[in-house]
Design brief:
- The complex is a heterodimer of chains A (393) and B (307).
- By secondary structure, chain A is an alpha+beta fold.
- The two termini of chain A are 37 Å apart.
- In chain A, strands 8, 9, 10, 11, 12 and 13 form a six-stranded antiparallel sheet that branches. A four-stranded antiparallel sheet of chain A has the order 1-7-2-4. In chain A, strands 15-17-18-19 form a four-stranded parallel sheet, with helices on both faces.
- In chain A, strand 18, helix 12 and strand 19 (376-377) form a beta-alpha-beta unit.
- In chain A, helix 5 (164-174) crosses helix 6, helix 10 packs across helix 11 and helix 11 packs parallel to helix 12 (361-370).
- The relative contact order of chain A is 0.09.
- Chain A contains 13 helices and 19 strands.
- Chain B is of the alpha/beta class.
- In chain B, 33% of the residues lie in helices and 22% in strands.
- Chain B is built from nine helices and 14 strands.
- Chain B is globular and about 55 Å long.
- The chains are: A alpha+beta (393), B alpha/beta (307).
- Chains A and B meet through helix 4, helix 9 and helix 13 of A and helix 4 and helix 5 of B.
Chain lengths: 393, 307
C-alpha cells in the first residue's frame, strides 16, 4: 500500500526524521490556512499523487510541472491554484494521469548537497537493507549501473537490529562532516525504526539533503507498506487514498479477487497467480494483448466468478474473454456454473474462450455444453490462447 | 526414491481443526498419506476422524512429535500466527515444516528466517501448494501429499518439478502425466519474497536423487532465485532441465498476485531470467503449455530417457 508524500513526512516527523516544515491543503479554500502555518519566504508547491516524476510532469490543461519553487507564499498560492483539481501526467502515471486532490506546501530549504537514502528488503539475504548514495536527486538505478562505487549498502541483522558501526559505515561512505554525520546518524536510526515498526515495504528519500548549517533533512519521501501486515496497523490503513486506486481494483478486492488493469483487449479470468501471469504471457506470445491480470484464487465460488465477470466487463477496451482454469482441488463444475450464470446475468455479447482442466472437468464441460451459450472451448492453454487471439483480431 | 518425503513419512497438521486444514488433511488421508497427528492449541485430547482413520490432536507440536513420531508438519495456521507455528516446528526439532499459509507479514518471515539459521528444520513456503511424492496406486495414491496440491494428477516417475506457483506446478505435473511420464517429487516453494527452501536448494536435492532423471524449473518475475539456480545448474547439474518464467507481460512495479512477483530492477524481469536460462543450457519453455515438451527436448539432446 502506497501513501502520499505529505502523509509520509508526517510519519517521518513522528519518528524523529527531520523534514522541511510543511502543510497540506485539499482544496483551494484551504490554501490560506495551510500557508498561514509556514513562515513568509521561499515556498515549494508540491502536487500529491502516488507516482514519481512529478516535477517533470505536465497537466492535461497544459500547465508544466507538478512541483514548483516560489519566492513568496503569495506566488505559491497562485501556482497551487493551477495544480489542484487538475490531472497530472508523469512518466509513471500512464497517459491518463492522476487528478491532483491535495497540495503540499513546504518551506524551500537551502541545499548544500543532495544524497540518496532508502530502506527495503534484500531478498537474497532475507534482511532489511539500507542503501545510501552520494548521488541524490537522480535516478538511483542509473547510479547503480554507471557508478556502483557511489552506492553504500548495509544489511541489518533482524535479531540484533541496526548496529552503530553500520551507521558509521554509511556516514563515512557519504563523506559527511562531523556535524552532518551526527545529524545523519540520528536520522538513519529513526528512519530504520520507522521501517521496522510500521511494517514498511520500502522507504525512499530522494533527495536527502544537507543544509549550509549542517542540518540533514528528508526533502522527499516515498513510502509503501507490506499489505500483509496492515491488519496490525489501523493507523496506516487510515492513510489509504482510494482516489489513487483503480475503481475496478477496489471492487475486485471486495470479493477477494486479485485484479490489475492493463491496456490490452483480451480479458483474462484465471485461478492462481502464476497461471494468471502466464495466461497474460501466452496471449501476448500468440500476438494478442491482455486487458488484465485476474486471479480468482483457489476457493472460487459461483458468486466470485460472477463478480469477476462483471469487473472485467467494466473495462470498455475488452473485446474478448479468456477463462483459464486448472481446477486442482477446485471443482471445474463450480466454475462452469459461475460462467453460465455470469454470462446470462450480464448478457455477454463478446467472444468467450474457456479452457477447463482438472477436478470434475467432464461435468464442468457438460454444464457449459448444456447451457447453450456460444462459447469456444480450448483443450490446452496454447490452443485456447490462439483461439481467443484469432477471435478478437 | 524421491526427495524430502516418501510414502513412509509421518506428518502432522497444524490447524487440522480449521475448515481449510481439515479438508486437506482428509484429502491427504484419502491419498494414502500417513497423517498421524493434528495440532490445535486448546483442543489437545480430541480426535480428527476421516474414512476410518483416527488422528489424535495435541496442544503442541513437541507433544505431537513425541507421541506419534511425526517428523514433518503442514501448517494451515492463519497469517498472524503462522510465523510462530513455524518456530514451534523448529523448536520441536522436526525435519521439515511446510507452510501453506498465504499472507504472512514479510517482517514476521524475516524474523523467522533469522531464527531458523543453523537449525535442523527445513522450511518450505510459506504461501505454497506443498510437496507431493506420488505413490504406485490408482491416481498415484499411496504416496505422500503434503499441502493442497491435487494428488490425482500425479504419476510415480522420474521428473522433478519445482515452482513458486501452485497452479503452474499442477500444469507442469499434468503435462508430464499426460505424456505417460511421471514425477519423483513435485515441490511448490511459494510465492513470497522471503521463504524457506529456494529453487536452488530443491535443484540440489533433485540432482543428488538417483531416481530423478529430469527437472522442470518454474519461476516468475521478481528476485534472483531462478538466476542463482540456473548458474548452479550450468556448473553442477548433468541432468536435463527445462525452465519457464511467468510474468513476461507484467508491468513494472505492480505486484502480480504473489507478494514476491514484482519487477523491481533490470535483473529480475522475465526477459533477463530467460536469457540466463538459455546461457546456462536450460531448455526454455516458450509458453506454459510447452513445459513437458521442453523437458523432452532437453532429455533428447542429452540422450536421457525419462521413463
Amino acid at each position: 500500500m502506497n501513501i502520499h508524500e505529505y502523509q509520509a513526512k508526517t510519519l517521518f516527523a513522528q519518528f524523529g526524521v527531520p523534514v522541511p516544515q510543511g502543510a497540506s491543503a485539499k482544496s483551494a479554500a484551504e490554501f490560506d490556512s495551510a500557508l498561514a502555518q509556514l513562515p513568509e519566504g521561499p515556498t515549494m508547491v508540491k502536487s500529491q499523487i502516488h507516482a514519481g516524476g512529478r516535477g517533470k510532469g505536465t497537466f492535461t490543461n497544459g500547465y508544466k510541472g507538478g512541483v514548483k519553487f516560489c519566492k513568496t507564499k503569495t506566488d505559491a498560492k497562485s501556482i497551487a491554484g493551477e495544480m489542484i483539481g487538475n490531472t497530472l501526467v508523469t512518466a509513471q502515471t500512464g497517459a491518463a494521469g492522476r487528478k491532483v486532490q491535495t497540495i503540499y506546501f513546504t518551506v524551500a530549504s537551502d541545499i548544500k548537497k543532495e544524497y540518496y537514502l532508502a530502506i527495503l528488503l534484500d531478498r537474497a539475504s532475507s534482511k532489511p537493507v539500507i542503501v545510501a548514495s552520494t548521488e541524490g536527486g537522480v535516478e538511483i538505478e542509473k547510479v547503480a549501473h554507471e557508478t556502483p562505487e557511489k552506492i553504500f549498502k548495509v544489511l541489518v541483522d533482524p535479531a540484533y537490529g541496526l548496529a552503530d558501526f553500520q551507521v558509521r559505515e554509511l556516514i563515512f561512505g557519504l563523506g559527511l562532516n562531523a556535524a552532518e554525520g551526527k545529524n545523519a546518524a540520528k536520522l538513519i536510526r529513526n528512519l530504520y525504526k520507522m521501517f521496522w515498526e510500521t511494517d514498511a515495504a520500502m522507504i525512499e528519500v530522494n533527495p536527502l539533503i544537507t543544509t549550509p548549517d549542517d542540518q540533514v533533512l528528508a526533502l522527499d519521501a516515498k513510502v509503501s507498506f507490506d499489505s500483509n501486515a496492515l491488519f496490525r496497523h489501523p493507523e496506516i490503513v487510515a492513510l489509504r487514498d482510494l482516489n489513487e486506486e483503480d475503481p475496478k481494483e477496489i471492487e475486485a478486492s471486495k470479493y477477494d479477487l486479485a485484479y490489475i488493469a492493463l491496456d490490452g483487449n483480451i480479458a483474462c479470468l484465471v485461478n492462481g497467480a502464476g497461471l494468471a501471469m502466464s495466461t497474460m504471457d501466452i496471449i501476448k506470445h500468440y500476438g494478442g494483448n491482455p486487458a488484465n491480470f485476474l486471479d480468482v484464487g483457489g476457493g472460487a465460488s459461483k458468486e466470485k466468478v460472477v463478480a469477476a465477470f462483471k469487473i472485467i466487463l467494466g473495462d470498455a477496451n475488452v473485446q474478448g474473454i479468456f477463462v483459464n482454469i486448472f481446477g486442482g482441488i477446485m471443482d471445474c463444475n463450480v466454475i462452469a456454473e459461475g460462467i453460465v450464470e455470469a454470462v446470462k446475468e450480464v448478457g455477454l455479447k463478446l467472444p468467450l474462450v474457456v479452457r477447463l482442466e482438472g477436478n470434475n472437468v467432464d461435468k464442468g464441460k457438460a454444464t457449459l455444453d448444456a447451457s447453450g451459450l456460444s462459447l469456444v472451448s480450448g483443450d490446452t492453454m496454447a490452443d485456447a490462447a490462439q483461439k481467443i487471439v484469432k477471435l478478437v483480431a | 526414491m524421491s526427495i524430502l518425503i516418501s510414502s513412509e513419512t509421518k506428518i502432522m497438521v497444524q490447524g487440522i481443526t480449521g475448515a481449510f486444514g481439515g479438508k486437506h488433511a482428509q484429502l491427504s488421508i484419502d491419498y494414502g498419506t500417513q497423517v498421524v497427528a493434528g495440532v490445535t492449541p486448546g483442543k489437545g485430547g480430541q480426535t480428527f476422524e476421516h474414512a476410518g482413520v483416527k488422528v489424535p490432536i495435541f496442544n503442541t507440536v513437541a507433544e505431537a512429535a513425541k507421541a506419534t513420531g511425526a517428523t514433518v508438519s503442514t501448517i494451515f495456521v492463519p497469517p498472524p500466527f503462522a510465523g510462530d507455528a513455524i518456530l514451534e516446528c523448529v523448536d520441536a526439532g522436526l525435519d521439515l515444516a511446510v507452510c501453506i499459509t498465504e499472507g504472512i507479514p514479510i517482517k514476521d518471515m524475516i524474523r523467522v528466517k533469522r531464527a531458523m539459521s543453523g537449525a535442523k528444520t527445513r522450511l518450505i513456503g510459506p504461501n505454497c501448494p506443498g510437496v507431493v511424492t506420488p505413490g504406485t496406486g490408482e491416481g498415484s495414491k499411496g504416496g505422500c501429499r503434503i499441502g493442497i496440491a491435487p494428488g490425482y494428477i500425479h504419476k510415480k516417475g522420474h521428473v522433478g518439478v519445482v515452482s513458486r506457483s501452485g497452479t503452474l506446478t499442477y500444469e507442469a505435473v499434468f503435462q508430464i502425466t499426460s505424456k505417460g511420464l511421471g514425477q519423483s517429487t513435485s515441490v511448490g516453494i511459494g510465492g513470497d519474497p522471503v521463504n524457506g527452501t529456494s529453487h536452488l536448494d530443491v535443484i540440489k536435492l533433485f540432482n543428488e536423487d538417483p531416481d530423478t532423471k529430469g527437472i522442470i524449473l518454474i519461476g516468475e518475475i521478481g528476485g534472483n532465485a531462478e538466476v542463482e539456480a540456473a548458474r548452479w545448474i550450468k556448473a553442477n547439474c548433468k541432468k536435463p532441465v527445462a525452465g519457464f518464467i511467468a510474468g513476461a507481460t507484467a508491468p513494472a512495479g505492480r505486484r502480480m498476485g504473489h507478494a514476491g512477483a514484482v519487477v523491481g530492477g533490470h535483473e529480475d524481469t522475465a526477459e533477463a531470467k530467460i536469457a540466463v536460462f538459455k546461457e546456462c543450457g536450460i531448455e526454455v519453455a516458450e509458453t506454459p503449455s510447452d513445459m513437458a515438451d521442453a523437458l523432452l527436448r532437453a532429455a533428447k539432446a542429452k540422450g536421457v530417457s525419462l521413463d
